[in-house]
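Check this:
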Amino acid sequence: MTAAGGPRRTLETPVHFLAGVGPRRAELLKRLNIFTARDLLFHIPHRYEDASTVTSIAKLRVGDDATVIGTVISKGILPTRKGLRVFQAVVQDASGLIEAGWPGQPWLDRQIQKGDVLLLSGPVRFFHGRQLSPREFVNLGADADGTMGGRVLSVYPATEGLSFKLIRGLIDRHLDALLPLVTEYLPAHLLAEAGVPALPEALRAVHRPTSVAEALAGRARLAYEELLFVHLLQRRARAIAREARDGIRFVRKKTLTTQLRKALPFALTGAQVRAVKEIVADMGTPTRMHRLLQGDVGSGKTVVALFAALLALENGYQVAFMAPTELLAEQHVRTIDHLLAPLGIIPVLVTGSRTVKERRLAATRLESGEPVIAVGTHALVQEGTRFARLGLAIIDEQHRFGVDQRRILGERGSGAEKPDVLLMSATPIPRSLALTLYGDLDVSILDERPPGRKPITTALRPEHGRTRVLDFVARQLDAGRQAYIVYPLIEDSEKVTLKAAKTAFEELTAGALKGRRVALLHGKLPAEEKDGIMRRFRDGALDALVSTTVIEVGIDVPNATVMLIEHPERFGLSQLHQLRGRVGRGAEESYCILLGDVSPEAAERLQHFLDTEDGFAIARADLELRGMGDLFGERQSGVPTFKVADPLRDEELSEVARAGAERLLAEDPTLSRPAHQAMQQVLRRQYGRALELFRVG
């Protein structure tokens, strides 16, 4: 591509045409979603090795983590008793010499020659004296100046057959030719507000930084763009949605809602009062509500949703309340029935397992137009279910439904009237992150727990304490309580030595829990069988449940007082928090016990969970330690994934990006002005949804 008279290289040049790539490496690069020169240029390091500060070899001490530059004065391959071949080299600078060892890398003997100058970074260990264990090395060549300074080394996401060093070499080889092809497309005033460099300089800084600070500044420009684009997409989506659909203007009649407030056997928390006000205000506008109600386990989301439901009933409308499982739908019906009994309101249950007679009666009530709260599963969105006057759709555990199911329920209604939508989630995340992830929604957050709820005693116990832990569980069962025992796997695997649920079930029923009523629950069981087991446990027909994480979002069993979790290091903190939320729902003292020997690193991580029951604090710690992917899994909302930005770490940058997005759209709602067209083209290329969201007119 670079030969005289050959095709001109562009950012769209297929990567296999670049020097040093070829067909085989091009296939490997596809695994990293690198197809063009642009993709290679925007393949950003995920960390940096700071080798910018060079230490003289004479000053190295065992335990140091250091960078040295020295000349190879001798080298060779050393076989060990276990058959491992170790490449060793002795390097020397003006102050002294040290041996460096690379276990299992004998092929380095062909790459490193006597007289080469090496930059080495890594820990200094004791092995027949001092030895450097290079985590990183760069061969500066035989002609390099051994007194030169160090550098910051970029470490890239890699794949099998294509190491990060090979990728670093490819990018470095083409960087000078590709950077001039890049032009900045974000408005200069936005970059100034965010305090980030222009795009060409940012890309140079992330790939070839002279300091870690410079690399981070370049990364900030790329992170800012991702955050800005997400905020633009979400705000435009919300604006279009509001323009395109008129909602129902609910009038606050204060009849049923006032009766509920007086009938409640407890006072609402400040967070609940705030959320109710936000929802009622939304429902009182002529545009449709599209709001997320987010709260920790036990924060009282259902009660808040009931105030919204009663506002709809007061105005003569019907309410659909959708839950992901029949058991949860049944639980909601019991809760609603109990809370609304003083008002004389009886909810109707709509699930696939109802009898023909029950389904016919439910259909009659819904088709009559009678104000009613219909609680159900996905059966609410099936063709056989028709609402005469649906005014509000409430969707619990909204992330467990597909986008289409949520959309269909939200579009139910009569004629031009479409219902307001209230989504609920029990996955607590920091408010700033919620506003980034769910920017197309209004967000209400319940960050207070109702007073009077007893704390759950939480402890980490080592493997040698297993007998005492199981004795404690047995005493709880003797007292008439129930217990969950949770494992991360279903079956034992040759590759994994963890105790699996099936094996544990057999051991427990033959040993510590012999004679008890114990059942095994896991995700591979048919849905009907899973529901049957959970119903038996709920109704007290089982003493203990040996389970995988299928109980993570489950039903209320007030009599369950023990949550025993094996191999806790295999779970995320937020997942552990959801599991702990299965107990502590009754009047009795409850316990969450983590059992197993864990590494010091895992123990330090688990301490965040042991120290607090605040789901928001735990979620923040989980995000900081494990990243967003582990907490959220595969998202269904259509929010673009972040390659560079971290909405938690980049909290302040996200706020700047949100403000910038709002100003841009206030000035130019469709981004059609000449100054914004280059940015719109990038949006269109990177996010297909932009074609729809930024349509003109």
